[in-house]
Structures are given as structure tokens and as C-alpha cells.
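Session log. Operator J.P. requested a structure for one protein chain; no other inputs attached. Running the standard single-chain path with C-alpha cell output.
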Amino acid sequence: MPKAVGSRAGVPERQEPYLCVLVEVTETDHPQYGSGWRWCFKVVEDGRWKGQFIYRGTSDRPTQGNSCGLFMGMLAGEEKLAEGAERDTDDFRGRAYRVHVEATPGGTSTRVASFSPAPATPELQEAPF
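Structure written below.
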């Protein structure tokens, strides 16, 4: 008879960031939180988690104090989106990032905590969506 061990959904938390590419940022409509964006990164480094996706939901209205504003800044390696700055997430699709992962508040899965641009590496040569 097969055996299984339960675990959290998503890639595990770890000290080092995952090497990923930004796949897309899509519009969502959450029943509890309303409209927002879903950030999707794909792990491209060699190893057990290669090919896995890491997600994070944010508001669709970036401010300097929310995760959407922070993520919009991180796309370009900045701390947060500057006031009055405009940025199109599609311009960053396929770019490499070092993605830090954290447990969700309920502890049942993991999500993107933060990310920063990563230099080009051999792993990125074969990073299709």
C-alpha cells in the first residue's frame, strides 16, 4: 500500500532565495479581498524544485506602504515604487529574480515574500514559460 507524508503546499522556505523568472502578473478577483494581482514566478535553478511555481496575491492598487507597491519597485531592483512612477509588469516578464519565500499567515503553504533582480546564468538559457 502506498504511503504519503503530508506537507505544506508550495516550495519550502529556506535561507537562500530561489532563482526564478517572472512568468506573469494577472488580474484576480478574490471573494474575500476583491480585485487584485497574482504574481507568478517559475523556479529555474537545478534541483528538486525546478519547474515549480511560486505565487503571491496583492492588491491591484500599488502604494508605498503595501505589498503591491513594494513588488512593483522590486521589479526594477528598487525598494518600492516611487510616487508618480509608472511601470508595466509585462515589461519584466521572463526576467530573472532571486525570490525569497515565506509561510503564509495560516501556515498551510508558502508564498513570495520578496525578490530582487538576478544576473543572467546558464539556468536562464532554458527558462521558457
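Operator note: Residues 8 and 106 are 11 Å apart (CA to CA).
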